[in-house]
Each structure stands twice: as C-alpha cells, then as structure tokens.
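General statements about sequence and structure are easier to judge against a single worked case. In the encoding step, the backbone of a single protein was reduced to a row of integers, each denoting a local shape. The record that follows shows the chain in one-letter code together with its fold in token form.
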Amino acid sequence: MLPPSPAMPRILVPMLLALGGALLALKVGPAEQQQVWDQLSNFPDVQAEAHSLRPVIAVALCFLPALGGLFYAMGGTLARYVSRQFLMIFLICVAGLFVIWMISDLGDNLDDLKNSPSPSQFAVQLYGARLPEIAVMLLPYSLLLSILYCLGKLSRSREIVAMIQTGRGLARLTAPFLVAGALAGLLCAGLNYQWAPAAVAKENSILRKARGQDGVAEPNIRYRNIPARRLWMVGAFPPDYQKGAPLSDVTVIQERPDGSLESILTAKRASWSPMLRDWKFYEVRKQVIKSEGSRPVFEQGIPDPLVITGWNEVPTQIIRPGLPAVQLGIPDLNDWLESNPDGAWANRGGHLTQWHYRWAQPFNCLIVVLLATPLGVVFSRRGTSGGVAMAVFLCAGMLFVSNIFLSLGDSGHLRPGWAAWLPNLLFGSLAVYLFQRRLAGRPIYQTLRKFIPAEA
C-alpha cells in the first residue's frame, strides 16, 4: 500500500475553498443577474456590457480565497510558514478593526436603531449591507498592522536572519505579503465596481426604515434630460420604485430649444407605466411661460391624473444618475458620464474623480505592503519601533493625501485623473524605492532622514 502523499493536505486547502466559493457563487450569481435584468428592462439607455459584468465579477470574487489557497499549496515550506504566521495575525487585525469601527459607528446610529421596532434585526441588516464598504475601508489598515506585527515578531526571534543565512533572499521571504496585497487589491477592485458604493445608499435606506420612513429610499434627486431639455426634481422615491411605486413631490421644468423656460409642472405623485409607456401625474399644477420675460400663467382644467405620453424618461433613468457620485459604481458612473458630456449643465469633476478613484484605490493595498515590508524588517538590535512608526506615518499620510486630492478633484481645482492617481504615483514610487533598498541591503533610515529637516 502506497503511503499517503504529503502534498494531499495542501491540495485540500484550495479544493475546500473552491467548494465554498462555488456554493456562495450559486447564491450570489443568479441574484445579481436578476438585478441586472431588472435594471436593463427599466433603463434602456445604459451601457449593457458594463452592467452585464456585474454577475461575472461577483462570481469571480467568490473564488478569490480559493486562489489564495492555491498559492499556498504551490508555495515552498518557507512561504507556507510565513503565510500561516501572517494569516492568523491578519484575521485578528480585521476582526479587531471591525469591532473598533462598529463601536464608533454605533455611536452615530444608536438612537435610530434603538427607536426601531427590532433594534437587533436592523443592526444585523445594516452592517450586513455595509460589509463591502467596510472591507474596502479596512483592508489597507489590516494589511499594514498585520505585516508590521508579523515581521516584527520574526525579527525579534532572529528568524529572518536565520532564513537569509540558509540562502533564501528577502524577496522570497516577503513574497506571501505581496500575494496577500495583490489578492486584497483584487477584492477591493471587484467591490468598488458596484457593491461598495451601493452600500452607502443601502445604509441610508435602512436607517430611514428604522426611523419609520420606509417609504423613502433617497430624498432630493435631480436629473437632466439634455436632448429633451427637461429637468426633473424628485423630492423622494420609494425603495421599490422600479416595480411601479410612485415618486413623490415631482417637479418637471421644460425648456424651449433656445434655453428659455416653457413650462413648470409640479405634482404630489408621479408614476410610470412600463406596459403603456406613459407617465401619470397626480394633483398637478402647471405654469406656462408664453414668452421670455412674461409672467407665468397657471393652466386651468388639468385632469387628475395628467397622462403624458412620448416622454422617454423612465424611473431608473431619473433616479440612478441623480444619486451622489460616491453611491454610484463603475457602470452607473459610465451611464452618468455618457448622458452628461462636456459642456453640459452638470459638473463632471466629481463623477470623473470617483470613476478614476474606483480603479486607483485598490492599488493602496499593494503600496501599503511595499511600504510596510522594508520598514518592518530589522536586522539590528535597536528594535522595530522606529520602522513601525515610520510605516504607520507614511501609510496614514498616503490616505490623508488621497482624501485631500479627492476633494480637489471634486471641486474642480485638480484634474480628476491626477486627483485619483497622483497619491498612488507619489507613495508608490517611494515604496518601490524603499523596497529596492531593503532588497539590496542598503540602509533605509539614513535615506529617510535626508527628507526630515535637522533640528536647529
């Protein structure tokens, strides 16, 4: 009888993770596909290709742990040992940061949850819906802390020196951290495509429901139909607006081809019929401006409801582009930018900045790894506190600068592409430089001290 293969336990890791990913994909994939079909049927003018990628990306994200398990199974003894040391600390950091963040966030939402009919149910629903947003926010910090702790532990026990003396280079020692950073970046990129931005809107909707305002999903939406020269202002819309539920407090401003006002229509409610392809406005007041400079005249004898045919807007087309840019994923940002070209009424800076940031933010995970790794490795007896402090300072500086640049991009003081990518270029170049110096065995702290002004 042949002895069992020593590689079998390692092979089981990706196999079990792939099985779990497949079970999760069977639940996530069809649900996401149904949402895409619903949106495409109610929103005929969207970029169908971008929205059709959503179920594909959702299924791919389910298999990311299996991909990590495959790298673990294919790695050597050293890589697997470092991976086990890192993974346990990483999970502890993720859990610890999540608890700290949740306690802080509960302080803001505790009153709403406490006054809801079922506080525990609403709390689980709220933070379950926000998991994609939380993951994108906490992953860089978790990578930073876990890498610094893991390398500090290996440095104090002189294991890094022993590994290098056996002929393993520092690049092989730190390869598991780079793989973890790449996988975390892929996860952030996938979540940023749709689900992390949408979690912000879900949070607002759940909190309104907890306050008893379950009939309102988002207030004060504005949409501009440039070809038809119509401006829609919606006071509130219900969560199930795609299924025919009416919009509330609707105002439609119609312009003439020369840009002058033609009419202003206000209604308490407005509903769209997907079968008849018409709009019904209830409790309508309509002001007509006959010529530029003349006083508006209220139209008399308006039927209730007022039925209007020939308008090509549908509820989803009005609501989705009217949401704040931070609540829109890549497909919805593409749709908004396509419907609002340069020179249109809307300021494209905020949406373009958010579009670029959706792609730039995942690289923060790799940059954090490249910054933390060279500063966390210590060969001397002076301890790891200096490297840890410097790594935390640089990573915090990167996140702070990113927020400043995003604000500059949103306000139009900086080009959107530069606002999203420039912090990555600056800190990424510094990270690669420090990593290269550590691999070459050159001093790092003397290099960093050149950028710090000497004391007087």
